[in-house]
Automatic annotation (TrEMBL):
Family under the similarity heading: Belongs to the transglycosylase Slt family.
Name listed for the protein in its UniProt record: Lytic transglycosylase domain-containing protein
Top-level taxon of the source organism: Bacteria
Pfam families given in the database record: SLT
Start and end residues of each Transglycosylase SLT domain: 107-205
Length: 254
């Protein structure tokens, strides 16, 4: 065989080798299991310039522009300028002494006491989907966690019993996701949907995930509610209820 033929054969072998092994490696699909990631880390910002917000002892990373926008919007939408009512403070004053010891007994972070204010807001009726009560339980979920619903009885409207059921549900969600922010998101949108989103995005940090609008804002709403209840004056709320409507609401709530 001539030298020219040897070179030609060598080139052909190299091309075949690259096309077979290189292509197979390029098209191989790796199945990556979601692992617990580190907290969000962003560019350094002087600590004094970053407002501190937290939920269940997890800091809200507001030095990320996307997170900061969502947090600022949620605080604005819950400010007195937008709400024009102190009824949420009235409800908090009445409900928290009942809810707080139950949360503590079941080992649920106290910040979850704001869930009823976000879920039911100014209304305690039945949602279009059938959720009812302060914790907005669907009938099936309520029954699963020990509440009686039906035959003229609806324990979703019982503050103590529904809070106990909510604690059991939240504990189960935390055991599943090992994160209180994800447990809150799953409380809003269901554990199946949150699990699917985590697998699809290969992500386990709520603040990094892309979720539907309601669930994607849910934790921000809880933090905003916490802020306006704990620091009312900062967000335009007054301790006096001047309007006739608010006096009527207060009387009705008592």
């Amino acid at each position: 065989m001539t030298k020219k033929h040897l070179i030609t054969c060598s080139v052909m072998l190299v091309v075949i080798f690259i096309s077979v092994f290189g292509l197979s490696n390029a098209t191989e699909v790796k199945k990556v299991k979601i692992t617990r990631t580190s907290p969000l880390i962003f560019k350094d910002v002087p600590e004094a310039e970053v407002p501190f917000f937290s939920f269940a002892d997890e800091a809200i990373p507001v030095n990320d522009a996307r997170v900061d926008r969502k947090m600022s919007y949620s605080l604005w939408i819950h400010s007195y300028k937008k709400v024009h009512s102190n009824i949420l403070h009235i409800k908090a004053e009445k409900l928290f002494p009942v809810i707080e010891p139950i949360l503590e007994y079941y080992g649920i972070p106290e910040d979850f006491k704001y869930v009823p204010l976000v879920e039911s807001g100014l209304r305690e009726g039945t949602s279009p989907k059938g959720a009812r009560g302060l914790w907005q339980f669907m009938p099936g979920t309520a029954r699963h966690y020990g509440l009686k619903v039906g035959r003229g009885k609806d324990e979703r409207l019982n503050v103590r019993k529904s809070t106990v059921a909510a604690c059991k549900y939240l504990r189960a969600l935390y055991d599943e996701f090992d994160s209180w922010t994800l447990a809150a998101a799953a409380y809003n949108n269901g554990s199946v949907k949150i699990g699917r989103a985590m697998n699809k995005q290969n992500e386990d940090n709520y603040f990094r995930m892309r979720l539907n609008r309601e669930t994607g804002m849910y934790v921000y709403k809880l933090v905003a509610m916490k802020e306006i209840i704990e620091n009312p004056g900062k967000y335009g709320y007054n301790e006096y209820f001047s309007s006739t409507l608010e006096r009527q609401q207060l009387a009705a709530f008592n």
